[in-house]
Every structure is written in C-alpha cells, then in structure tokens.
Automatic annotation (TrEMBL):
The chain crosses the membrane at residues 16-40, 46-67, 79-98, 104-125, 146-166, 172-191, 211-233, 249-269, 281-298, 304-326, 338-358, 364-386. Residues 215-406 form the Major facilitator superfamily (MFS) profile domain. PANTHER family: MAJOR FACILITATOR SUPERFAMILY (MFS) PROFILE DOMAIN-CONTAINING PROTEIN, PTHR23542. PROSITE patterns: MFS. The lineage of its organism: Bacteria, Bacillati, Actinomycetota, Actinomycetes, Streptosporangiales. This is MFS transporter.
Length: 406
C-alpha cells in the first residue's frame, strides 16, 4: 500500500507543500474550540462563547470561497500573504478584546474579521496537487486520499493540543497557537512558487461564480449534509459516552471514527479504480447511509467503539471522489474556489449537525441523536441520485493559462 504514496511524495516539491499545508491547516480543528475556551473563561458564559465562535464560522463561510476565487485569478502567493497577515492581526485583536475585558460586543467584529481572513488551506493544497499531477491525472485520487488522511490526523490532534494549551497554560494559548500554525504554514506555502498553479483569468463570456456550474450546485448541498453527519456524530458520541458513565472516553470513541476514515482513505488511494467517478461518489453516499444505521441500535460503549470504526470506513470513499468530481467538472480558473466552497459547506454542515444533535440529546437522549446523522446521510443519497446527470457532465472549456511575470 505504501508504494503509491511513496511515488506521490516523490513528485518535485510535493513534500514541501504537503508539510506547509499540514502546519497551516492544523488550526481548522483548533480555532472554534480555542474561541470557546477563551471567551468562556473570560465571560463565564458558554452562550456568549458559542455565539462568538458561530460568528467566526459564518464569516469563514463567506470569506473562504472569495479568497480562493482571487487565488485562482491572481495566484496563490499574491492572495495568501496579505490574507494570512490580516488573519494574524484579527486573531490577536480578538484575544486582546477578551483579555482586556473590553465590552462583549467587541468580540463579535473581531471574530468576524478573523473568520473572513481564514482560508480553506486544504483546498489550496488540493489545487496544487491538481497542478502537479496534470500530466498524471490517474494519480490524483491517491493525492486526495492522502489529503483525507492528513485531515483526519488534524482533527484528532488539533482538539487535544488546543485544549491542553488553553486549560494547562493560558486561556488564550490555544487560540494563539492556532493563529501561529496558520501564519507559519500559509507563509511557507506562499513561498513555494514552483508548485503554484498559474493564475487563470475569468473565462470569456462566463457569468457568476463557481455556483453557476450545475455540478457544484449538487455537490455543495451534498457535502453540507455530509458535514451534518460529522457534526451530529461528534455530539452524539460525546453524549453517549457521558450517558454510559465514561465521558473521558468520548475522545477515544471519536478517535475510532476518525481511524476508520483514515484507514479507508489509505486503502482507497492505493487502488486503481475503473468505476466511473460519479458512480463511486453515489456508492460512497449509499455506504455512508448504511453505516449510520448500526450506531442507532447499539447500547454498549465498547461495542459502539467497534461500530463507529466501521461507520468511519464509509467517510473517505465518499469525500475523496467528491473532491475528484470538483476537480473534473470545475474549470481550472475556478478550481480553488470550487474546492474551497465544498470544504466550507462541510464546515457549515458540521455546525448544523452539532446543533441539531444537541437538541435531540437534550430532548430524547444520546441514542435518539444518532438518528440525526442517519437522516442527513439519507438526504445526501437522495440529492446525489437526483443530481446524477449533472455529475456525469464533462469539464467546460478552459481559458489559456496566464504566465506569472513577477
């Protein structure tokens, strides 16, 4: 299995932009928790902390696709440097507003600015893979599989790091570390000009952004529902462990879920697939829905750990071909924007799923809350089937590349 990945990392410049991307996007699993831990420590209110974190998330959902659009048009380094510097200043401002006991309302504009300047760096790295493997497109699914493993690693390690820093060092230390990861990783990625995709002008006669593409109008809500599955599983698993009298094992339970996804990603990326990409995507959605059934039936914590591991096996075979479809169906001058949009959709879905599952836990208990990810997965299957024709389309014509003269 290691052969395809060893070959992948042998691509010139790949190890460097992979390392930079890993460091730069460590914060994606740290910022929200870091905000909650800081603001709740200062104000004593989890309600205010959650509202500030939600403000940051909503602003991120707006700003991330926009910065990606500019990266497609003008080049990654020209956009990434000023955006990440603005992000560092914005997060520092948020920390100062909290630590100086400024009025609570000041936290919200600071959080909004931090969210607007937070980039979906995974999309930028995947765009680099698409550029680096343009002569070997068959290896792209291996690259996207590898990036899924990186994402899972980040979502396991990030919350542990930010919680340890915020509770053991200083309430602001976790959020500060997240900002430092973002700044250093993004600047390192921007410095690697040799693997950067060439800027692409807007296609002549094109109208609107990437959402004008029918395939993206299918994939985006599907990814939002998949994110809803993730968010609902997180809350349901924590509540389940708590109800079983073993809340400290909630992290282990979620780790089993992530381990299943990472294992599947390694297996998926090592295979050479003949099945059409859009069919693999629909099969993945169906498997995801089936995998959400067993957690609704299990009442024992140890058995649930095994069950969620096998449920996690369905994640990567859904996410990876989904990104592959974006790469195939979105023209090059909109690729980073398209990848960022679907990544952002997952984040919005995570927030929605967590909120919905939390309400169900309060009203009916943890076991019932596992019905939320099942319902979201079934809805994703229905959307995927309804949009089958759009997903089978060919890529629109490409405009010529614009050489970078700087």
């Amino acid at each position: 299995m290691s052969g395809p990945y060893r070959e992948l990392l042998g691509v010139p410049g790949a190890r460097l932009f992979v390392a930079a991307g890993f460091v730069g996007r460590m914060s994606m699993s740290m910022v929200g928790i870091g905000v909650v831990l800081l603001v709740s420590a200062v104000t004593g209110s989890y309600g205010i902390a959650g509202a500030v974190a939600a403000t940051l998330s909503l602003a991120y959902a707006v700003g991330s696709p926009l910065s990606a659009r500019f990266a497609d048009r003008y080049g990654q380094h020209r956009v990434l440097v000023p955006v990440v510097l603005a992000n560092a200043v914005s997060v520092a401002t948020l920390i100062l507003c909290a630590r100086l006991d400024l009025p609570v309302w000041t936290l919200f504009p600071a959080a909004a600015l931090a969210g607007l300047t937070q980039v979906s760096l995974g999309a930028w790295v995947r765009a680099r893979w698409s550029h680096a493997l343009r002569e070997r497109p068959a290896r792209l699914h291996t690259a996207f599989s590898f990036e899924s493993v990186v994402d899972e690693t980040i979502f396991v390690a990030g919350p542990l790091i930010v919680t340890a820093l915020a509770t053991g060092v200083h309430p602001a230390a976790g959020l500060g570390a997240a900002a430092a990861f973002t700044l250093s990783g993004c600047l390192a990625l921007a410095a690697q000009r040799g693997t950067e995709p060439a800027p692409r002008p807007r296609a002549p006669g094109s109208r609107g952004g990437v959402l004008a593409n029918p395939a993206i109008r299918v994939i985006t809500p599907v990814f939002l529902l998949v994110g809803t599955v993730f968010g609902a599983i997180d809350v349901s698993a924590v509540a389940f462990a708590d109800e079983q009298g073993h809340k400290p094992l909630a992290g282990v339970l979620l780790g089993c879920y992530a381990l299943g996804s990472g294992t599947a990603a390694l297996w998926y990326g090592a295979r050479h697939w003949r099945t059409p990409l859009e069919r693999r995507f629909r099969i993945g959605l169906a498997l995801l829905a089936v995998a959400m059934v067993p957690p609704t039936l299990v009442g024992d914590l140890r058995l649930m750990m095994a069950v969620v591991f096998f449920s996690g096996l369905a994640i990567s075979p859904t996410i990876i071909p989904g990104y592959g479809l974006v790469e195939r169906l979105v023209p090059g001058h909109q690729l980073t924007e398209g990848l960022a949009l679907v990544s952002t959709s997952v984040g919005i879905g995570v927030a929605a799923g967590a909120s919905a599952a939390g309400r169900v836990v309060d009203a009916y208990g943890a076991q019932a809350a596992f019905l939320v990810p099942l319902a979201a997965a079934l809805a994703a299957v229905a959307l995927g089937l309804a949009g089958a024709r759009a997903l089978a389309r060919r890529r629109p014509p490409e405009p010529p590349e614009t050489p970078d003269k700087t």
